Amino acid sequence: MLSRVRGWFRRTPPSFDPTWEAVLRSGFDHWNLLDDAELERMRMLVARFFHGRRWEAAQGMDLTDEVKVLISAQASMLLLGLELDEYLDVSSVIVHKSTMRVKKQRPTGGGVWSGGTQHISGQAHHRGPVMLSWSAAQRGARVPERGMNVVYHEFAHRLDMMDGVTDGTPPLGDEAAQARWQQVFTEAFARVHDGESILRNYAGTNPAEFFAVATELFFNRPFDVFTHERDLYEELRSFYGQDPANRLVRAGIHPDA
C-alpha cells in the first residue's frame, strides 16, 4: 500500500500541450477573454480533465484531440474560480456526433406517466458518465451569444450533484449562504413560470434545470443576467468566483456594443 502511495506522489502532473492553444483560441470564444492568471490556471485544469477522464465515442464519432480539448476547456471553465481542480466522480465522457435519443417518462396528470423518446444534447449521470453532443458542444463554444452551452449545462449538474442531491443548490459552505441562495433562486424560478424571466422556459422544469440554465446564461450573456436578474447574478458570481460581465468590460465589450 505504501509503495502505491509513493507512486502516486511521484506521478508527473499532466501537461498542457502547446498545440492546444491555437485550437482553443479559434474554437472557444471565452478562452480569448481570460487574463494571464486565468489562462495559467485554465491550462492546468484543461490538462487534468483531458488526461484524467475516460473518453468514449458514440454514433461513429471521431474522437480527436481537438474534440477532447474543446470539451475539456468548457468543463474546466466552471472550475476556474472554485477551490476545486477536477470533477472527481465523473467516470467518463461519452461524445456523440449529434443529438441523442433517450426514453423518458413524463407525468401526464392524475398519477399517470407517459413514456416516449426524446432527442437531447447532453445528460449527466450521478457518479457516472456525462454524455454530450459534439455538434452542440462545438456550437456552444463558438457562439456564446446564443446563451446556450451544453457542456456548461451538464457540468453545472455535476456541481449540483456534489452534495448527493440534485436540487439546484450546490455545496455553499454555510447555512446563511444556503438560505440566501434558496431565496434568490426561488424568486427567480417563479419568474420563469410567470413569463417574466430572461431565462428560457426549460429553466422552469425543476430547480436543478434552473441552476444549469442560469449557469449557461451567466457565462454566455452576463450583461443580460446582471441587468434583469441582479440578485441571481450576484449569487452565481459568488459561487463560481467569477465575474463574466466584468471580464467582457475588461476586453472592451460593453452592454450597448
UniProtKB/TrEMBL annotation:
<dbReference type="GO" id="GO:0008237">
    <property type="term" value="F:metallopeptidase activity"/>
</dbReference>
<dbReference type="GO" id="GO:0004177">
    <property type="term" value="F:aminopeptidase activity"/>
</dbReference>
<dbReference type="InterPro" id="IPR024079">
    <property type="entry name" value="MetalloPept_cat_dom_sf"/>
</dbReference>
<protein>
    <recommendedName>
        <fullName>Zinc-dependent peptidase</fullName>
    </recommendedName>
</protein>
<dbReference type="InterPro" id="IPR042252">
    <property type="entry name" value="MtfA_N"/>
</dbReference>
<dbReference type="Pfam" id="PF06167">
    <property type="entry name" value="Peptidase_M90"/>
</dbReference>
<dbReference type="GO" id="GO:0005829">
    <property type="term" value="C:cytosol"/>
</dbReference>
<dbReference type="InterPro" id="IPR010384">
    <property type="entry name" value="MtfA_fam"/>
</dbReference>
